[in-house]
Design goal:
Number of helices: 8
Strand order of the largest sheet: 1-2-7-8-9
Number of strands: 9
Helix content: 40-55%
Structural class: alpha/beta
Strand content: 15-25%
Largest sheet: 5 strands, antiparallel
Number of domains: 3
Length: 302
């Protein structure tokens, strides 16, 4: 009788263990299936984002073929709310990057500092109530020489601080690169962000959309009041070309710096959100509408 009781208990224990293992295996299987589904949804959301970027390139190509100027009132600048696409949703907006001053204008093709553009950057910093020494530290960060400017910082400074590093000696890739430079922090970067950008090579400012602060910095002799008035005029009726910009200025045009402005842009940024199933992604991309079909220079998922 006692042996039967032991056998029964043993059988119950075995059944309990088997049930526990089965439950654990089912849970693991369910988790694995959920992970696979999430990975699939994420991949699909990214594919939607990539497809949207190619669609944005097509929109910019069409605009280039049908318009001689670029301004925020054109169809390409409209925000697209989330809309159904290929079983998911995608939405976003294109932005003209050349309404901001390009930090890489500081660097010449030979790796030296473009001194007239450095003066522009100093004026821009002053307009934003930021220390003008930030122009010197950035110049030292990107130039190819090892001689520190007054108020600047070369390798000697960076190797003596933690984390140790060396100056870049090349053009910036993204605006966040500024956080590596002496004197720059998140507060400074965010104050600069509405007025500066990081683009390949040297670029002009599109006066159709540029801020009064940027216009005042790039055009020597332009007052704050005149700059604000020009912004208002451009909002009411976009400038057709620089001759139109000069005419509508209404007085002696500050010609110094005219070569820095334009009414047409080459670089645009795309900010979009894509969703598929349970996954959502955000993407930022830079599109170059140079020669030929627009191309995506870089993209970042968040």
């Amino acid at each position: 009788m006692r042996s039967r009781g032991v056998a029964l208990v043993t059988a119950l224990v075995v059944v309990a263990i088997a049930a526990s293992l089965a439950t654990h295996l089912l849970w693991r299987s369910s988790m694995w299936i959920s992970q696979v589904e999430s990975m699939r949804d994420l991949a699909q959301a990214r594919l939607l984002a990539d497809a949207a970027a190619q669609w944005a390139a097509a929109v910019l190509a069409d605009d280039a073929a049908n318009s001689a100027v670029d301004h925020p009132q054109e169809p390409w600048a409209r925000q697209i709310p989330p809309m159904d696409a290929e079983g998911g949703q995608v939405g976003g907006q294109l932005f003209d990057e050349q309404v901001r001053w390009n930090l890489n204008n500081l660097l010449t093709a030979s790796g030296k500092i473009n001194e007239p553009e450095l003066i522009v950057y100093r004026r821009l910093l002053a307009e934003l109530n930021l220390p003008t020494e930030l122009a010197e530290t950035l110049a030292d960060w990107i130039d190819v020489d090892t001689e520190a400017r007054p108020g600047g910082a070369e390798d000697t400074y960076y190797l003596a601080h933690s984390p140790t590093t060396r100056t870049l000696g090349a053009s910036l890739s993204v605006i966040e690169d500024l956080l590596l430079v002496k004197g720059y922090d998140v507060v400074v970067m965010e104050r600069l962000r509405p007025h500066v950008t990081v683009l390949p090579g040297t670029t002009q400012i599109n006066v159709n959309g540029a801020s009064a602060i940027v216009l005042e910095a790039v055009l020597t002799g332009l007052s704050s009041a005149d700059a604000e008035q020009l912004v208002l005029q451009g909002q009411r009726l976009p400038f057709r070309d620089i001759a139109d910009f000069r005419t509508r200025f209404g007085k002696d045009f500050p010609g110094q710096g005219e070569g820095r402005i334009a009414t047409r842009s080459r670089y645009f940024s795309l900010r979009l959100q894509a969703a598929f199933g349970k996954s959502q992604v955000q993407m930022v991309a830079l599109i170059d509408r140079g020669q030929g079909w627009p191309v995506v220079v870089w993209r970042r998922f968040g």
